[in-house]
Amino acid sequence: MTSAVLAVERETNVGMGQIAVVGRDQVARSVLGSCIGVVLYDERRCLGAFAHVVLPASGGRAGSPGKFADTAVPFMLEALRKAGADPKSVLAKITGGSNMFSADGPFQIGKQNADAVRAQFKAANIRLVAEHLGGTSGRRVTFHPDTALLEIECVGQQVVVI
Known about the structure:
Number of strands: 10
CATH architecture: 2-Layer Sandwich
Number of helices: 2
Strand order of the largest sheet: 1-3-8-9-10
Structural class: alpha+beta
Low-confidence stretches: none
Radius of gyration: 14 Å
Largest sheet: 5 strands, mixed
Mean pLDDT: 91
């Protein structure tokens, strides 16, 4: 099970379907479109997990736990617990969910991903404290577990920190 967690360097790039657990003096980075960047963290322990969620539900399909909202959140909680986090202190932030394909079409995977992640938080009793979602452009994001801040860069916009 731990093979799904990336080996973490000072800076770890989290690709589609991947999960990284980061602590003091480390950061997790990703580039997101319709995917959701899920951050779970224990602020007191300066410990967090970042997942690059691609799809809302596994539907029994094989794949990395980070690929699907319904497998990523439980996996992240367990990985944080094993790393020393208090599951009762874990908070969440999410970003991404851009509408990369069509502003008004039926295929709104970004919104579906965000809704699925929120449903997982509710099921696990995790408090969502901040989100930066939607739009029509991608985001470059960086999570800092030392400060629990998530920096979000969108083309042509000022950096947002949540």
